[in-house]
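Lab meeting minutes (informal)
Scribe: AK
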Amino acid sequence: MFPVRNTIILIIMMCWLTGASAAHICWVERVTSSPYGVNVFMMDGYDVARRVAVTHTDGSRSSITPNSDGSFTIRDGESVVLRGGIHDSCTAKAVTKGGKLGLDIAAKNCSPGIGCTEGRDFLVPP
């Protein structure tokens, strides 16, 4: 039987090799506008309360408290690490580009024997 962990690793590597978007690799489903910044919705199975901490514009860090709808909110200039490990990372930062506040997502995967692949997405609320 193929262990679940190996299956997940295989799926992630296939996504990288086929050019999947940084948003999907980092488990970001969508973003919406908020009076305070950008609401970030993660895909099913991602535990926001356990995994996400925000770095504020002054450099301080704090835990994320999910909103009632399961999303979390970050303000312009704040960033979060969505996934990190020995070979991969996903970071996201709320930034204004072209007059629109959105989420800049950067994903990087370095696999032994394969090398590194990087992807970047800018998600703008509808």
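Next up, CB showed the second protein from the same session:
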Amino acid sequence: MNVSALPNPLPPPYALSATDTAAPANNGTCFSRSPGVPANCTENCVYYPEIFGDSWLLFGELVCAGTFPANGSSTTTGGSLQPTNIPGYVTATMTKQCKDYKYVPPWMGVVTDQWGGKWALQTSEKPMATDGDWANNLNTVVWPAGWVYENVTLNTTEIHVSYLMGNDCWSFIIRDSNNNAWHMFVYPENITNSLFANFDCIPFKLSDAAAISNATASAPKPSASSGAVMIAAGWPLTGVAMLTGLLASKLFF
């Protein structure tokens, strides 16, 4: 897509952003269906709304966000999370995304939380040119008490999948004290006794749904809850820009 052709400035609640630097093992993602599309969907399961004259891939719904421990520092502004993490805290985000991650050798950053959940290093907000840059970055992260980081050698490709409950695929994301992003890929046996039962998750809500009223669907229109914040990316996926708002959001993950 031609980012320069977008309105400047963008009308609220949209905002332009750039993607982060992918971790060395992070070899890409696959979206199987848009949020609200039934789990038994077999064809045309992804929704492509038209926004500002371009087609976008609707792939997620932002649910809520907050920090752990709960007295950390984070805010939500206009439905978009503004992480301001400090040492010893993580910013956590709950999303609905039917999203698989492909991770490849030679190594993967992994942190294990106090409930046994494991998180894979996904991106950094800063350029990381070498493994040494990554090491300097990750070795200076200050995790909450009881969280343990390790550098894991990968000998084969791994596929990390979302947590499925009914029709919904849940994807859990954290940001550390250096603002690196991590996704959960090993889930505690009891997901209700995990990070997401132990912090205040502030709901994302936008009151104006007019942005999608004239969108043309090429798949079943998702049955999202009223005011839900949807996530979309420019199509074809260029990894260059995203929008924030009802159908599109700046991604912090």
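CB comment: The chain has one domain: 23-33+44-234.
No objections, moving on.
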